[in-house]
Write a structure and sequence with these properties.
This protein is α/β, with parallel strands linked by helices and about 375 residues long. About 45% of the residues lie in helices and about 20% in strands.
C-alpha cells in the first residue's frame, strides 16, 4: 500500500474514533495466513503512535515471523494472562488489564481464536465486543474462512474443515474493513521461502490448503464478502434498507432433519443477501417429544438452535401435532415471505401413497416462496 494512501486510511480511522462513544472496530481481512494482515495492522499502529494516539498491543501473534516481530518493537504491550490447563501454561489476551489500561486503540490479532478453558469468554472476538462496549477502539485481523456461514462451502470445495469460526455478524460490527490482498502465486512463493510456516510444514501446506485453486477461490470469497459489507453499510446509511425490508424468512428445523447446521448456514446467507430478518423454527411434534427422542438428539436440537442464534436468526420453538398447520400459522402471523426447508429422502412407498410436507405446504401457504435446500 502506498505511504500516502496508508496515511489517509489512518487519518480516516482517526476521524471515525472521534465520532461516537462506542468503540470503533477496524478489521484487516485476508484470505489466508501470510498475506500480511498482522504486519499492516502493526504498521498502522506505528502511524497512529506518531500522531500521539494512545495505542497498545492487546495480543499479537507473530508466529515467529521476523518482519512481524520487528514491528512489535516500540509499541506498548499488555502482558498476557497465563492460564494453566492440563499442566500446560497457555497465554491469552488479558481482557481486564486492557480495560484497566483503557487505551484509545487496542490491537487484537486473530479474532477467531479460541481462548483457553477458564477464560471469561470462549472466543477472542467476544472479548473484543466487551472492549467496544467499554468505548475502547480496536484494530483486529481475520481470515475469511473463519466465517461461520462459509464452513460448508470451504469444507466441500477445499476439503478443509475449519475448526475456529466466528458468527458472521462480527464482520458487520466493523466500521472499516481493509482487504489485505496478495496474488496467490506470491503467497505460495512466501510459503516456499519459509516466511509463513517452518520449512517442515511447507510441502504439506502447498499440497493441501495452499493450492493455487484454493487460494484463488478464497480471494474471490473475500472480495465478495467485502463488497456485500460495503453495500449493506451504504443501504443502512441511506435508509434504503428500510424501504426494501419487506422480506421475512423462516427456516424449518427438525431433530431428524438432514444436516441442520448446513441448512442454517445457507439460510443465513440467503437472509443476509435479502437484507431480511429470519426465524429458526423448531416444531416439536408428538414424535419428537422429550419422551420419544434420546438425550443425544435433544442435545443436537439445542446445539442447532444455539447456532441459529449465533448466525443472527430469531429462535422460535413450538409444539404442534401437525407440522404443516403449525408452519402455516407461523408464516401467516409473522408475514413470512420465504419458507426454507432441507431436502429429505422419503421411502418409495410414502412418495406414492402420501403427500410430502412440501406438497402440503404449497397448498397451505399460497403466495409464499418455498425454498428447498440440498444440504448433502
Amino acid at each position: 500500500m502506498p505511504p500516502d494512501e496508508a496515511s489517509q486510511r489512518a487519518e480516516h480511522f482517526l476521524t471515525l474514533i472521534r465520532q461516537r462513544q462506542r468503540g470503533r472496530l477496524k478489521l484487516y481481512l485476508g484470505f489466508a495466513a501470510g498475506v500480511g494482515k498482522t504486519y499492516e495492522m502493526l504498521q498502522e499502529a506505528h502511524r497512529l503512535k506518531r500522531q500521539n494516539v494512545d495505542v497498545v498491543i492487546g495480543v499479537v501473534e507473530t508466529h515467529g515471523r521476523t518482519e512481524t516481530m520487528a514491528l512489535v518493537a516500540g509499541l506498548e504491550q499488555i502482558p498476557r494472562r497465563r492460564i494453566e490447563y492440563r499442566n500446560v501454561v497457555l497465554e491469552e489476551l488479558d481482557l481486564d488489564a486492557v480495560l484497566a489500561r483503557r487505551p484509545t486503540v487496542a490491537l487484537i490479532d486473530e479474532l477467531a481464536h479460541t481462548n483457553a478453558p477458564g477464560s471469561r469468554h470462549a472466543k477472542r472476538y467476544q472479548g473484543v465486543e466487551e472492549l467496544l462496549r467499554a468505548g475502547i477502539n480496536v484494530i483486529a485481523t481475520l481470515n475469511i474462512q473463519h466465517l461461520e456461514s462459509l464452513y460448508d462451502l470451504i469444507e466441500r470445495d477445499m476439503g478443509v474443515p475449519v475448526k475456529e469460526r466466528i458468527p458472521d455478524y462480527v464482520l458487520g460490527l466493523a466500521d472499516e474493513i481493509v482487504n489485505v490482498d496478495l496474488p496467490a502465486e506470491d503467497l505460495r512463493e512466501r510459503l516456499t521461502s519459509g516466511k509463513i510456516y517452518p520449512m517442515g510444514r511447507v510441502n504439506q501446506a502447498l499440497e493441501n490448503f495452499f493450492t493455487a485453486d484454493n487460494l484463488t477461490r478464497l480471494r474471490e470469497m473475500t472480495l465478495g464478502e467485502i463488497a456485500h459489507a460495503l453495500d449493506r453499510r451504504r443501504r443502512e446509511q441511506s435508509g434504503e434498507r428500510e424501504r426494501l425490508g419487506s422480506d421475512r424468512l423462516m427456516v424449518c428445523l427438525s431433530s431428524r432433519g438432514p444436516s441442520p447446521e448446513s441448512l442454517l448456514r445457507k439460510s443465513a446467507r440467503i437472509a443476509d443477501r435479502l437484507y431480511a430478518p429470519w426465524y429458526a423454527v423448531y416444531i416439536q411434534t408428538p414424535r419428537e417429544s422429550i419422551e420419544r427422542i434420546d438425550a443425544a438428539a435433544q442435545r443436537r436440537v439445542e446445539n442447532v438452535l444455539e447456532l441459529a442464534s449465533q448466525l443472527g436468526g430469531v429462535v422460535w420453538k413450538s409444539k404442534g401435532s401437525d407440522v404443516v398447520t403449525t408452519i402455516a400459522a407461523f408464516a401467516q402471523e409473522y408475514a413470512i415471505t420465504h419458507i426454507i426447508m432441507g431436502r429429505t429422502q422419503r421411502p418409495w412407498y410414502r412418495r406414492i401413497f402420501r403427500q410430502s410436507i412440501f406438497d402440503r405446504l404449497m397448498q397451505a401457504v399460497r403466495g409464499t416462496t418455498i425454498i428447498v435446500i440440498d444440504t448433502g
